Amino acid sequence: MTIMIPAWQDGALQPVEKLMAHQMGLKHRAVSIFVMAEDHILLQQRALGKYHTPGLWANSCCTHPHWAEDPMICARRRLDEELGMTGLDLEPRGEVEYRAEVGNGLIEHEVVQVYVAQASFSVSMALNPSEVQAVKWVTREDLLKELDRTPTLFTPWLHIYMTQHSDLIFET
User: Fold this and answer.
1) Of 62, 74, 82, 108, which one is the catalytic site residue?
2) What is the CATH topology of the domain spanning 4-170?
3) How does DSSP assign 82-146, residue by residue?
4) Would you write out the chain's pLDDT as a tens digit for each of its 172 residues?
5) So where are the chain's domains?
6) Which member of 74, 82, 108, 110 is catalytic?
7) Is 171 marked active-site?
8) pTM across the whole model
């Protein structure tokens, strides 16, 4: 199935096939969600079948809205599709732009709507094995230590979020 996402070409937002946007390094829209339980962040390990960054740890959930899809609706849809999580209140935390190489000649150049959701450690989840291999709860402090100690285990965007946009994401 070809998924068309909003990407900028020649200065205008246009529908572009997702893989092509990454191959060409086109700036495109995305959403990222951080699910929190107390002082812990839910991380997901990307499935091994993903076309980029397979097996790496990332924030709770991230994706691209379909053409003309509202970012909040996209975030809720994707939490359900990837993690089987529904009913969480998503709090918008602002917009972040980043550009990162993600391997195999692919580039993520994203304009991201960031959301935070509060949950309990016992929140119901049903992981989609084609998207998510595993999840774990980690404190922000421990995550920063792990990112420093073993950076290759994490996605480039998680590094960017934690080192450049932490205040925006985790403001209380």
Assistant:
1) 62
2) Nucleoside Triphosphate Pyrophosphohydrolase (3.90.79)
3) HH---SPPEEEEEEEEEEEEEETTEEEEEEEEEEEEE--TT------TTTEEEEEEEEHHHHHHH
4) 456 777 777 777 788 888 888 998 889 999 999 999 999 999 999 999 999 999 999 999 999 998 889 999 999 999 999 999 999 999 999 999 999 999 989 999 999 999 999 999 999 999 999 999 999 999 999 999 999 999 999 999 999 999 999 999 998 5
5) 4-170
6) 110
7) no
8) 0.93
